[in-house]
């Protein structure tokens, strides 16, 4: 989302959303917030510790391990992953000397065959989304936690494979005297689970809830995240009488009434976006028209835990649109679009040539129409050898300026990172 106060809001969010704390939830359960990019939940059993996720790097997990040794002499013998994202598993190796069982759930939907062939571009887009090439000042915040350790020289990913991989929908176990219900809960990932500790009335929800607008779509790219299933998972989480909700990122939510309020609004806001997008599709609107029309009602938009600091509503709408009906919007003009290079050449000619486009770019920049300026630059950059290298050099410079200005207006950390990363790439060409 674009907003004139985006940078100030992101700075405030970064300063308040994930302070470094070891929070005692009950006599037997703690949550480490701000020790890594993600949280780690520590459950004390009769003779050992059970960890739910392990932070994002070996160095950070090692510091957590040292802290735990000051609190108890019980070793970590069991690790449970809420899902497979590396920022939740990257610290696992720090516990290799004592861990005996590592539990995970298999994804409900397989990765598309051949995905490994596009890993180079997915990795490049991931680098941009998370701002791995940005300074701390440029970054402001990585979005859901402190910067990942591997990005700033604070350790590396240190993975250990699961020793127990469940394919069931639900598993109930007692681990070292602690009762757990582990439930498959498709949402941000297809292998996502939640953990219910009935004796403590604690819900560990992984990344299906955190305190800002979620990544219903990740701009780094990936398979469609089933939003309807995500809503169903949130409803199932809400069916438990939890007194503490421990998310995979950011601070816990405490008290059953507060959990019901927060999760209820979070769930209904997502459901609203899904329902409104489907309504627009059913009316025959295009993806662009739908993205422009669907907005959160003010009652949701004003809530602090639904601010667009990570995902955005517009990206969510576009993902839902394509997830349900694919790329074709129903307009026959789009069945066989003019090739991009020819399209750019034709529009440049129609506008009166490169000079006319360049004048329009400068005017757009002067009038703070940065999105329009960027799109005009794309015409010059996309017209092939009919546009001279001198014009293209100017276009790269103008586009980089446009992207930098857009980054200052973007409330989503991911969007900010992507704008700035691409601007820096253009400035190097």
Automatic annotation (TrEMBL):
Q: Which residues form the Metallo-beta-lactamase domain?
A: 37-249
Q: What is this protein called?
A: Metallo-beta-lactamase superfamily
GO biological process, alphabetically ordered:
dodecyl sulfate metabolic process
Q: What are this entry's molecular-function GO terms?
A: linear primary-alkylsulfatase activity; protein dimerization activity
- At the top level of its lineage, which domain of life is listed? Bacteria
- Fetch the Pfam families from UniProt: Alkyl_sulf_dimr (PF14863), Lactamase_B (PF00753)
Q: Which organism was this protein described from?
A: Hungatella hathewayi
């Amino acid at each position: 989302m674009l907003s004139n106060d985006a940078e100030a809001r992101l700075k405030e969010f970064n300063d308040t959303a994930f302070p470094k704390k070891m929070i005692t939830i009950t006599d037997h359960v703690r949550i480490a917030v701000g020790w890594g990019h993600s949280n780690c939940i520590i459950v004390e059993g009769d003779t050992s510790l059970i960890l739910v996720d392990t932070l994002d790097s070996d160095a950070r997990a090692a510091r957590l391990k040292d802290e735990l040794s000051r609190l108890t002499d019980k070793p970590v013998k069991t690790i449970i992953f809420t899902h497979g994202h590396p920022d939740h598993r990257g610290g696992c190796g720090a516990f290799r000397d004592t861990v005996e069982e590592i539990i995970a759930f298999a994804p409900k939907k397989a990765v598309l065959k051949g995905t490994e062939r596009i890993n180079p571009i997915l990795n490049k887009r991931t680098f941009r989304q998370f701002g791995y090439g940005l300074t701390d000042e440029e970054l402001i915040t990585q979005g859901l936690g402190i910067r990942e350790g591997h990005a700033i020289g604070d350790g590396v990913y240190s993975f250990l494979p699961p020793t127990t991989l469940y394919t069931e929908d639900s598993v109930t176990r007692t681990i070292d005297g602690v009762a757990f219900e582990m439930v498959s809960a498709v949402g941000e990932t297809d292998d996502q689970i939640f953990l219910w500790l009935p004796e403590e009335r604690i819900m560990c929800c992984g990344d299906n809830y955190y305190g800002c607008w979620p990544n219903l779509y990740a701009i780094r790219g990936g398979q469609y995240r089933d939003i309807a299933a995500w809503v169903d998972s949130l409803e199932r989480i809400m069916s438990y009488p939890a007194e503490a909700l421990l998310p995979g990122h950011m601070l816990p939510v405490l008290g059953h009434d507060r959990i019901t309020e927060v999760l209820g609004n979070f769930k209904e806001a997502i459901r609203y976006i899904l329902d409104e997008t489907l309504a627009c599709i059913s009316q025959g609107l295009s993806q662009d028209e739908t993205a422009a029309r669907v907005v959160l009602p003010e009652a949701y938009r004003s809530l602090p835990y639904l601010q667009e600091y990570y995902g955005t509503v517009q990206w969510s709408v576009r993902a839902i649109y394509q997830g349900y009906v694919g790329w074709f919007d129903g307009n026959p003009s789009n069945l066989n679009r003019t090739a991009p290079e020819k399209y750019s050449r034709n529009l440049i000619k129609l506008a009166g040539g490169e000079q006319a486009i360049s004048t329009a770019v400068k005017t757009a920049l002067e009038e703070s129409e940065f999105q329009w300026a960027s799109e005009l630059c794309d015409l010059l950059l996309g017209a092939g050898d009919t546009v001279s290298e001198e014009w293209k050099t100017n276009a790269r410079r103008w586009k980089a300026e446009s992207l930098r200005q857009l980054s200052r207006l973007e409330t989503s950390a991911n969007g900010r990172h992507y704008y700035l990363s691409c601007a820096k790439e253009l400035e190097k060409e």
